[in-house]
Design a protein that fits this description.
This protein is of the alpha/beta class. The protein contains seven helices and six strands, in the order βαβαβααβαββαα. α2 links the parallel β2 and β3. The termini are far apart.
């Protein structure tokens, strides 16, 4: 079995994540793509709760026919959220799976800060997807959607619903949980 791993904060997941996963599944000869929400962000980024981000990822996965799944492996691994540790854990747990690691071209400049990237490359095929605005020579595929979780959160903070950037199921989960200021009852003016 061949599985591509798409890690991230997914704070929230958006159509760019769905498009990246769909592209890899359709063109790179993988049987499944696993979304791996980070448990502890290695660079200390403030995030919604792990459980809330897992629920939103599961809602995103419902947009597919089962090949896209959410993995909670980052919680099991614990530690500092380093990709090399997660990958080593998965390779040991699933010796029958060939892993690929999906990263966006926007991440390439951060690779010098990653722990043991050369070891990561020995454990998994690294697929660098062309994220719009971040051209790089080693990317595969066309530029993907120019959307980010930061952009989505900024829209929500301005009171705009990012209905064209976030699948409706993800927004429904966020609204039900009161994430990103959604679904929070407004104070009445009497």
């Amino acid at each position: 079995m061949k599985v591509a791993l798409l890690g991230g904060s997914f704070n929230p997941p958006h159509v760019g994540h769905l498009m990246a996963a769909t592209y890899v599944h359709a063109t790179q000869g993988v049987d499944a793509v696993w979304l791996m929400p980070t448990f502890h962000h290695p660079f200390g980024k403030q995030l919604e709760s792990f459980e809330a981000r897992v629920r939103m990822c599961e809602a995103l996965c419902r947009e597919t026919s089962g090949w896209l799944q959410t993995s909670q492996v980052e919680r099991e691994v614990g530690g500092g959220g380093r990709t090399v540790d997660t990958l080593a854990f998965l390779v040991e747990r699933h010796p029958d799976i060939q892993f690929s690691l999906i990263i966006g071209s926007d991440i390439l400049r951060d690779l010098p800060n990653w722990k043991d990237f050369d070891r990561i490359q020995r454990m998994a095929r690294v697929l660098v997807l062309y994220r719009a605005g971040y051209p790089a020579p080693q990317t595969v595929g066309p530029p993907l959607a120019e959307v980010s979780s930061t952009q989505v959160r900024e829209m929500l903070a301005r009171g705009q619903e990012p209905t064209e950037l976030v699948p409706s199921g993800v927004l429904a989960v966020a609204r039900e949980a009161g994430l990103f200021g959604l679904g929070v009852p407004r104070a009445r003016a009497d």
